[in-house]
Each structure stands twice: as C-alpha cells, then as structure tokens.
Amino acid sequence: MIFVLKELKVAVQEIYDQFDASHDFQHIERVLQNAEAILATEPDADGEIVRIAVLLHDVSDKKYSDSKENEEKLLNLLNLSEEKKQHIKDIIESVSFNGGNEVEAKTIEAKIVRDADRLDAIGAVGIARTFAYGGAKGRKLYDDAEEVRVQMTEEEYHSKNTASVTHFYEKLLLLKDLMTTEKGKQMAQDRHAFMEGFLEQLKKERAGKA
User: Which stretches make up the HD domain (predicted)?
Assistant: First the structure.
C-alpha cells in the first residue's frame, strides 16, 4: 500500500495545486503529519484508511467543486473493497464543520482525520490560512459592524462572505472544544492560545496601543 499511497499523492497534488494557498497540497501534508501524531496514540485505528482519507478529503471540497467527481474517480483507482471505500467516503463527509452542522464522526478513523484537519485550521498556520483564503475570496480583514453568528444553517455558513476575523469567532475558536481524540485535544491547546494572543494583539494595534 506504500506504493499506492505514493501514486495517490501525485494524483491529488495535481488537483490541490489548482486551489489557493489555504487548501493546497502543503495543507494535505500538514494534515497527514497531524494524523500520524494522533495515529501513534490510537493503536486500534486503521492507518491505511486514515492516510487515504486525508489525501482525498478536500479533492471535492464544496468551496472548489460542485460535484464529487474527483473523489469518486480517485477512489475507483484504488484496489479497495466497497466497504473500505464507503468508510473513506463517510470519513470525508464527517470532516467539514459546516457552520456547526457537522456529520457525526462515528469511527476512530473519522475522529483522527477530522481532528488532524481541524488542527491545521488553528494556531499560526490556521491564522495564515484564514487570511490566505480571505484574500483569495476578496474578504475584508475585519468588520466591526459584522455580527458574529452563533447559529446558522450550512447554506448560510457557506454563502455569506464574512470578514476573516469574524471567521475566528464563528469557527476557529470553537474547534479546541470539538476535538474528539485525546491527542487532538492536547495538540489544540497551544494553537488555540496562540490565536487568542494574535486577536488580542490585533485589537491593541488597531487601537494604537501596541
């Protein structure tokens, strides 16, 4: 399966290279790294399933694609049982936050992939990715008049072009408490604190106090 994973990496990189810097192949490499760290603490998890799901989890992301074509095409290239393919699809479906309307991560593999992906959404890298995506979409850095939404539908979450700082309060600052594995919870602590420090510094600079 090592050979298959190498080939799959090449195939998915061609897709991710078309996305902006917030969801490029470097994002996938970091999520793989996070997943390996969590896998080391979860001996009962299927590492093969986790690694494939990480590689495929954004190839048909709604932000960049209107269909599951890439996901289906790549899965069909793999010599896996239909049961394993469905498991991978279920994992991918459970990764997205969707404004708090997330699909339950029912298996340890789904929990690992979701935590690994969300770890890359917070901390220093998470800050960089947020502004990279915001810039690619023409979003404001911040908007003091914008109300932070506590509850929203999946459609509302994806359709409103909120300022990048607003995104911290609507999603990123919530992720620490949504981690599902013990290692994920542990890894999230420092990253969450770094984001809080960044937002506090941003407030000071905007107020001319730093």
Answer: 24-122
Return the biggest CA–CA distance within the chain: 60
Q: SS3 for 48?
A: helix
Report the chain (210 residues): mean pLDDT per 10 consecutive residues: 78 95 97 98 97 97 90 92 96 93 95 98 98 97 95 86 96 98 98 98 94
Q: What is the pTM of this model?
A: 0.95
CB atoms inside a 10 Å sphere around CB 3: 7
Q: How many of the other CB atoms lie within 10 Å of CB of 49?
A: 21
Say how far apart CA 29 and CA 150 lie, in whole Å.
32
SS3 184: helix
Q: Which of 14, 16, 1, 9 is nearest to 32 (CA)?
A: 9
Residue 167 corresponds to which amino acid?
A: H
Q: Are 89 and 75 in contact (CB under 8 A)?
A: yes
Residue 70 tokens read as 């890439």
Rounded-to-integer distance, Cα 89 and Cα 147, Å: 35
- Residue ranges and CATH numbers for the domains of the chain are 2-206 (1.10.3210.50)
